[in-house]
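Budget justification note: compute hours in this period were largely spent on complex prediction jobs such as the one shown. Inputs:
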Amino acid sequence: MGHISIPRLTHHIGQTVTLRGWVQTLRDQKHMQFIILRNPTGTVQVALEKQQNPGLAKIASTLTRESAVRLTGRVVQNPHVRLGGIEIHLADLHIENRAASPLPIEPFGKGLPGLEPRLNWRHLDLRRPESHLLFQVQTTVEAAMRNFWYQEGFIEIHTPKLMGSASESGAELFELPYFDTTAYLAQSSQFYKQMAMAAGFDKVFEIGPVFRANPSFTSRHDTEFTSVDVEIAWIESHADLMAFEEQWLCDVLSTVRNTHGEAIAEHFGSEIIVPERPFPHIAMEEAVARLAERGYTPPSEKLGDLCPQGERLLGEYIRETFGHEFVFLTDYPVSVRPFYHRRYPENLAVTKSFDLLWKGLELTTGAQREHRPDILAAQAQEKGLLLEPLRFYLDFFKYGCPPHGGFGFGLTRMLMVLLGCNNVREVTYLWGPKRLYP
Amino acid sequence: MGHISIPRLTHHIGQTVTLRGWVQTLRDQKHMQFIILRNPTGTVQVALEKQQNPGLAKIASTLTRESAVRLTGRVVQNPHVRLGGIEIHLADLHIENRAASPLPIEPFGKGLPGLEPRLNWRHLDLRRPESHLLFQVQTTVEAAMRNFWYQEGFIEIHTPKLMGSASESGAELFELPYFDTTAYLAQSSQFYKQMAMAAGFDKVFEIGPVFRANPSFTSRHDTEFTSVDVEIAWIESHADLMAFEEQWLCDVLSTVRNTHGEAIAEHFGSEIIVPERPFPHIAMEEAVARLAERGYTPPSEKLGDLCPQGERLLGEYIRETFGHEFVFLTDYPVSVRPFYHRRYPENLAVTKSFDLLWKGLELTTGAQREHRPDILAAQAQEKGLLLEPLRFYLDFFKYGCPPHGGFGFGLTRMLMVLLGCNNVREVTYLWGPKRLYP
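Corresponding output:
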């Protein structure tokens, strides 16, 4: 199952080894055959002098690029070989799976294919070492997030993805027949993670899929994506959440830099900067005023909010003013926030909420929640919601629900900024919505 | 946000502390008031001599059981108090959220309510320390699984839950309108994790939801559950997978025993035994023969397979014969396995597959996969499947897919056996299918 590490073959000179991997290139010359074999540990040259073993040469001559092979040979020093001064003298070759030819896309050709064909042939596109690195980074990011939570005593929950009513609003909701009734796909774990607060769990997290019936084809949206969710009880205000989140994020970025910093620089040309704490904060009202000075007007339908372009401009303003890549944008007006966000007692038009932007891209929406049942119900009605479909949710607050709050965090958006990619599709394992097979 | 640990209050004698938690009981006597305060760290008695602070006594007298409160008081030694010989002399009390009275269920009453009312009021049911422990155990189980994978160089993937065609069969499939087409909820990550193999990822895992439109109300089934999925490239046979799985599982059980063994014994009366390796193996044909000797006949529609009762009997046979709680049941006939399971070259009627049973309950189905495209397509057609909806999947095997295999593992089933519960509903955070709100 495991591989002998190709970079460590220098420790096996003179020995016979078995290697598994893919035929990245094949040169079939008059007297010699050369294979560049690739596997997740690296690439190595394999050579065969044809007259030494004509039967084996015949098998090798049937190879196609990207075929999966298992081969055996002796490790030999050869200072003329560019790949580590090492080559394998082929002794045996088994073709596990011959690649059809031509390949539908050329993952290793000069110049990448376009994004569409790459996504159509994702399993070939993912063979590039950059793609492997991307998912190694994702693995490290999540491991670091989790380790931080474990140390802080968080409990992991798996909330239902099939719901009986809309979690936040009726818009962008997938609906499906569920035996003799109707169910909806969860747009977030919002209500369910709040249930954990009502259950007396101090701190919970979940990493899981959420669904938005948004036919949008922008570079920032998806109908299905991985949401990172955190909810914490007994907070004083949303300031506790921001302090938590920035500490957590610095820890994660520090781990990513230590583990993959060099490889990310090499493959993505992106430098990981572990940000200084505390992150800059700016209230929405002030952000709008600062951006107005720079000639930005929010779209009329988003009064008191920013559009993605405004967020980018704010990112630039923060970078220029504070030399920081992150900013907590706080104190959103009630009009642009969901009913369950808590409001300032001294200013009921403003919520105790925040977004976190990284280089001008929204990663997080968070807030202290309203946990007083009468006020919560009134806020829902004020937003035009019916109380009956919310009954199960509103019941969470009737029997001793502590003050709490939390945030949701977009994993793919973070990876996008981290690696300097331009599109969530590149950092998503298999991107819909049109690409539904299988 | 954090709590002062109640068991460690003995280190704070004479000090004034602030505690947060729930009013588990309240005794309002003529001269004294006593509250038992509970939070995730434990329970402690809080006392107030009424005439010392009549205003505070008045507030305390309005308390109801399960209200969420924040209180301040002095830590005092009192050898008459059963809870650690400690009590808090109340100085201040803030009711964060008053519980309505009566409670719809009594989580701390004598005798548990029935399972239905408990699930209907899950946020109250989850307040019991056993429930907290259950989800702490789940958190530890998943952390241990992941740590093992991280050390082995696994990559974490998040596969789509919205699919364009059935992943395994058309049965038990949730279907939903997806813009101008139809999508299906993934019944497993099977095809997608195999895509990672075609992409040259060596070892991948995923923990995520899967969906089965099974209206079944047995104690072992759910329409949505958390599946633990593993897929490994370059295996020689399914024996590699079983060897991996048993090592992984022993590591997880050892961590659970070290972390929660005593608490599990106290709350669930269940002892965690880290099993000996290798686990017993038995081929299906032999299992059927051994059970026939004990008077068991498999149902005619499952010829060559066992029904749940047969699995329980096999668990008993293995325990009696080998003194072991686990058994790998191997070599299922083709008729009861999906088309993509690889077959023995010397016996094409039998698959290189296995289930893992724990105390007679199936936890895992695994197999080496057929990775040769022509044979795979032929096996699909033999099962009556159309190739066109499988096109995207079959393409994985055309361009150099290495030999591979993997298994799926039911998280809730494992927790059920681990804690000696009788029903997946008890170990599921919020159980459907009828309980769809929110």
